[in-house]
Design goal:
With 305 residues, the protein is of the alpha+beta class. It has ten helices and twelve strands. Strands 10-9-8-11-12 form a five-stranded antiparallel beta sheet. Strands 4-7-5-6 form a four-stranded antiparallel beta sheet. The chain has a three-stranded parallel beta sheet with strand order 2-1-3, sandwiched between helices. It binds adenosine-5'-diphosphate and magnesium ion.
Length: 305
């Protein structure tokens, strides 16, 4: 009986994605209550171990985004405390969060990613790493936080002087074309969504402003491109040993409609989970309502130790 299970929804925290996590957590808590669970919403701070020890939930639903919640840290704590949790474990989370590291694993698994290099902020500011257009991004953030696209003719520095994401950045060749995303649950892909952004690119505002972007699902694509995106997302999930839900982000240069022009940008081990976020929307499209999705995630929650 769901009613006898006590689920702590871990949310908030202190990453740059705190607000996004509060939205995810509130929505998941509501869906879990609808599904009949006893739910406590927990805003994560440095006293989280004491809070959880006192609360003693049956399962932790991880609704955190960004460092601490998405990079293996909270997962390690929950393993040590013996509290089963949703989503990926320590290693998959840590590797997925480190974009250059994840790209090395993806390359070994034969998954196409945009060409890129890790550079110092200094060298990147000096220019000349790649001819524009190119993309500069933090090694380990999400929600497009800190992502800059340098277009042809731009001469302003791609990284602001108050850049707060470390001494190094990932510089990638810009892939023109369309933005696609594929959610995976239990090793199976849901479907492909195309995101049409009303801003210059799929930046933080396009992601979270009402009407900032339009989702088309299933994406209108040639069958072989859809099949390739679904296959790449499940392979990316498996290559890192991910668990529960993940979401893989792609760019597709559709000038020639070739499978070889589909590129994996990254995998998210803690994708956004409000009712209108990409993954719950794809699950609903496949007939799995939000309360059912979160229930199934709770059922397969576990510890690694
Ligand atoms: N190499 C690239 N070519 C074109 N657009 C890119 C590239 N890398 C990132 N972007 C754009 O920036 C967005 C955020 O980048 P992503 O790598 O997914 O990081 P985040 O973890 O911040 O979501 C993407 O959804 C895409 O719109
Ligand atoms: Mg992304």
């Amino acid at each position: 009986m769901n009613g006898t299970k006590h689920v702590a929804v871990l949310m908030g925290g202190w990453s740059a994605e705190r607000e996004v996590s509060l939205s995810t957590g509130t929505a998941c808590a509501q869906a879990l209550r609808t599904a009949g669970f006893r739910v406590t919403e927990v805003d994560v701070d440095r006293k989280i171990a004491e809070t959880l020890a006192a609360l003693a939930p049956d399962v932790c639903f991880n609704a955190l985004h960004g460092p601490i919640g998405e990079d293996g840290n909270i997962q390690g704590l929950l393993n040590i405390m013996g509290l089963p949790y949703t989503h990926s474990g320590v290693q998959a989370s840590a590797v997925a969060m480190d974009k250059p590291m994840a790209k090395q694993v993806f390359a070994k698994a034969g998954l196409r990613c945009p060409e890129g290099v890790v550079c110092s902020v200094e060298d990147t500011l000096a220019g000349g790493v790649y001819e524009a257009p190119y993309v500069v991004k933090p090694l380990n953030q999400g929600s497009s936080v800190g992502v800059h696209i340098v277009r042809q003719g731009d001469n302003h520095p791609p990284v602001a002087s108050n850049w707060g994401f470390g001494d190094q950045v990932l510089v990638e060749k810009y892939i023109p074309g369309r933005e696609l995303s594929v959610g995976v649950f239990d090793g199976e892909a849901f479907c492909v969504t195309e995101i049409i952004s009303k801003h210059g690119f799929y930046d933080y505002n396009a992601k979270y402003e009402d009407g900032g972007s339009i989702h088309v699902l299933p994406a209108e694509l040639p069958d072989e491109i859809t099949a390739e995106a679904l296959s790449m997302a499940t392979r990316a999930h498996a290559s890192l040993g991910c668990r529960g839900v993940t979401r893989s982000d792609f760019r597709f240069d559709d000038t020639e409609k070739r499978v070889g022009d589909l590129y994996l940008l990254e995998i998210n081990t803690q994708p956004g989970m409000t009712a209108t976020s990409l993954v719950p929307e794809q699950a609903a499209f496949r007939g799995m309502a939000f309360p059912e999705l979160v229930s199934r995630m709770v059922e397969e929650a576990r510890c690694e130790l």
